[in-house]
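Input/output pair, single chain:
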Amino acid sequence: MRSGDGWCALTLSRQDDVDAVPALLESDAVGDDPWPPVQDWGGWQRLRDVTARARLLGLPVAALRETRAAPPRITMLGAAAKPRQPSGLLVADLSSMWAGPLCGQCSRGQARPS
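Output:
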């Protein structure tokens, strides 16, 4: 989302996040779709003000280039297992928010959960 002087990421994936939008915007009239008023509000605010206010309300938010990416750490835990076919496997995706659900989606051509 564009702010007045930078870019940030904000998610409203939980109902509590959506419920916090009126407090974020300091407005009672948000409407059915919270994104247009949030984007309009954010476009006029300084980036640090957007992230500070969203964090104050417990909203998941981050500013672009807020932290430097760490190099990946690879730790080998035991011997590698032989490759297996995906049929018959059960995968429990317990992730939430942002990348977790996207990474857990089935790719084209693979078995889909029933």
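The radius of gyration is 20 Å. The helical segments are 15-19, 21-25, 35-43, 47-56, 99-104.
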